[in-house]
């Protein structure tokens, strides 16, 4: 003859089952939120590259505009447009970093234009393609990137405009699809 089941054991089993039913979904939710938060943090860290580089290009454009010629006079001259973006093909920064060569930034050295005129070069790997375009009243610098490699590119843009004898930079960076 078997002893009767103990009531304490069945209550303990029921408590464990209830805890499992409540705890497992709660842990799953925490994990999902953690993964989302981490991805967002990493994407923000990568887009910081574009914002910082565009800010530096804008500063370099102002320095070049306000620089002195050989006679010591302020030039008030915009650097002409770069003939090529770096890298030349956007697909090279789609879902991965790109290591540029210094020659890519110096393409326009003989014409004293583009990144060579700005005296700008990146020596670290980059997530974005950079371009510099002079306009009749200023310049536009852009960064294009595809951080997740899905073929959809984000674009960051900063502009400078000639106002009188100064080159004034817009206070904000225009962002299109910033988390792509």
Question: How does this model look, in words?
Answer:
By secondary structure, the chain is of the alpha+beta class. 38% of the residues lie in helices and 18% in strands. The chain has helices spanning 7-65, 102-105, 114-118, and strands at residues 128-135, 138-145, 154-163, 166-169, 174-176. Strands 1, 2, 3, 4 and 5 form a 5-stranded antiparallel beta sheet that branches. The longest helix is centred in the N-terminal third of the chain and has 59 residues, at 7-65. The relative contact order is 0.15. The model has no long low-confidence stretch (mean pLDDT 86).
Strand pairing plus helix content: what structural class? Answer: alpha+beta
List how many beta strands DSSP finds. 5
SS strand fraction: 15-25%
Radius of gyration: 27 Å
| Intertermini distance | 70 Å
Please outline the major beta sheet. Answer: 5 strands, antiparallel
Write down the domain tally. Answer: 1
Q: Sum up the overall morphology in one term.
A: elongated
What is the mean pLDDT?
A: 86
Number of helices: 3
Model regions low in confidence, pLDDT < 50 over at least 5 residues: none
Percent helix: 25-40%
Order of helices and strands, N to C? HHHEEEEE
């Amino acid at each position: 003859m078997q002893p009767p089941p103990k009531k304490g054991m069945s209550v303990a089993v029921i408590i464990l089952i209830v805890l499992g039913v409540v705890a497992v979904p709660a842990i799953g939710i925490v994990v999902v939120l953690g993964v989302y938060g981490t991805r967002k943090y990493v994407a923000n860290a990568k887009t910081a590259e574009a914002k910082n580089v565009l800010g530096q290009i804008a500063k370099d454009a102002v320095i070049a505009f306000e620089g002195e010629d050989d006679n010591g006079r302020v030039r008030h001259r915009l650097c002409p447009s770069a003939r090529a973006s770096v890298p030349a093909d956007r697909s090279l920064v789609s879902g991965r970093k790109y290591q540029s060569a210094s020659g890519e930034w110096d393409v326009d050295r003989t014409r004293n234009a583009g990144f060579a005129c700005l005296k700008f070069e990146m020596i670290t790997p980059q997530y974005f393609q950079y371009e510099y375009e002079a306009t009749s009243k200023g310049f536009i610098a852009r960064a294009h990137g595809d951080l997740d490699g899905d073929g959809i590119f984000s674009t960051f843009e900063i502009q400078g405009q000639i106002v009188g004898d100064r080159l004034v930079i817009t206070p904000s960076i225009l962002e299109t699809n910033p988390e792509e």
